[in-house]
Amino acid sequence: DSDLSMRTLSTPSPALIFPPNSTGFQNGRGSSTSSSSVTGETVAMVHSPPPTRLTHPLIRLASKHQKEQANIDRLPDHSMIQIFSFLPTNQLCRCARVCRRWYNLAWDPRLWRTIRLTGETINVDRALKVLTRRLCQDTPNVCLMLETVIVSGCRRLTDRGLYTIAQCCPELRRLEVSGCYNISNEAVFDVVSLCPNLEHLDVSGCSKVTCISLTREASIKLSPLHGKQISIRYLDMTDCFVLEDEGLHTIAAHCTQLTHLYLRRCVRITDEGLRYLMIYCTSIKELSVSDCRFVSDFGMREIAKLESRLRYLSIAHCGRITDVGIRYIAKYCSKLRYLNARGCEGITDHGVEYLAKNCTKLKSLDIGKCPLVSDTGLEFLALNCFNLKRLSLKSCESITGQGLQIVAANCFDLQMLNVQDCDVSVDALRFVKRHCKRCIIEHTNPAFF
Question: Entry's CDD domains (predicted)?
Fold first, then answer.
């Protein structure tokens, strides 16, 4: 490896792509740690295909017994590819250096539908450039097999890395760049404009991303109705603190096919942004506005326009939401399955009653830190929501063991109950355990075990 000039653009070396003892590429089936002894800053380089036979003078011929034990070479190609499919990406690169046959098998297109990067020290931009260049050998400048790129927590990812993906991977369907705070709107615009099949986009923690839209060039080339052609269905913008109502308006106008949208801790979003959202995105099934402190009952009135399509809603720690907002949701969203209203201190037993009577198919409910909810509200839940599987009552000061016993006597399928920091007796907890045998109880009572 001392003569770098002899290397050609063929097989990326895992020891040179990844720093020592760092987390390497994955193929979507687990992770692996590079065992390279290379020290210092690493550079993504590539190696030529290995020769058919290893002829190094230090390599001795194996004994007859050893040759008989090497049965893996007798396997047909399809079996070898099946074995390789369970290897992480950096190990695939290692396998490609064993012999010419393994080289050809390791770069079979079926093994390269997913690239996954994790770790803060990886030179992500360089690694993406090297891998996409190798995957584009059979189809120059275009990588047709790659459908998923997951780059989580790689702080060295910049716009340059996303430009590489946008230009080389037109068939991309899933992109996750959570925690990569160096990327900007321009790079995201390029990806959504050049990857028309993109359905899943996770930019959570990317604080510079303020909206999702087409590039100006793409908007000019396409018809005015092209906004409906952006195929993103899943969008996670958790912790995109700079996102405002205007940016949400742009997102809604361009991503009309959204079914899953997560806006956790997008603290600048207000009811007006939700109004824009409901005008364009009428197919949303899952929505989270947790910790959006400016969202109020008026926002709930807008969300209620989703009606029976809404199945998942998180409004945790939205302190301006009261029973009025819960009544809107309960009245129109009758097929709701999941509701997280933790920390909404304006919710009382009346809101829980209306919710229980109208959303009878609820399976998961979190009303922790709602001090105005008491055993009366639990009784309404127990008598109407028989399918309840998960219930969190953490820090509900007005809850007692009597309410828990009513729930346990009616909700036999209960699988998780959180009563931490609640004043409930050991007898009540034992009653729950007897009636709901599969239920995991989270509690703070040292006498119950």
Answer: F-box_FBXL7
Closest CA to 253 of 217, 216, 222, 279: 279
Q: CB of 252 within 8 A of CB of 272?
A: no
Cβ pair 181, 144 in contact under 8 A: no
Residues 6+ away with beta carbon under 8 Å from 173:
147, 148, 197, 198, 199, 200
Cβ pair 183, 206 in contact under 8 A: yes
Q: 3-state DSSP helix/strand/coil percent for the chain, to nearest 5?
A: 40, 10, 50
Helix, strand or coil, per DSSP, at residue 353: helix
Rounded distance between C-alpha atoms, residue 68 and residue 239, angstroms: 57
How far, in Å, CA of 398 to CA of 367, rounded? 12
For the segment 301-334, what is each residue's pLDDT rounded down to a tens digit?
A: 999 999 999 999 999 999 999 999 999 999 999 9
Average pLDDT over residues 134-150: 84
CA–CA distance, 251 with 264 (Å, rounded to integer)? 16
- Evaluate if residue 439 carries a pLDDT over 80: yes
Q: Which domains does the chain have, with CATH numbers?
A: 74-110 (1.20.1280), 112-248 (3.80.10), 295-448 (3.80.10.10)
Rg, Å, the chain Cα set = 27
Dist CA 127 CA 366 (whole Å): 43
Question: Widest CA span of the chain, in angstroms?
Answer: 84
Strands (E), 204-332: 234-236, 260-262, 286-288, 312-314
Q: Which residue has the tokens 């009382």?
A: 348
pLDDT in tens, 65-87: 445 545 777 888 888 888 888 87
Q: Measure the CA–CA gap between 53 and 105, rounded to whole angstroms.
A: 16
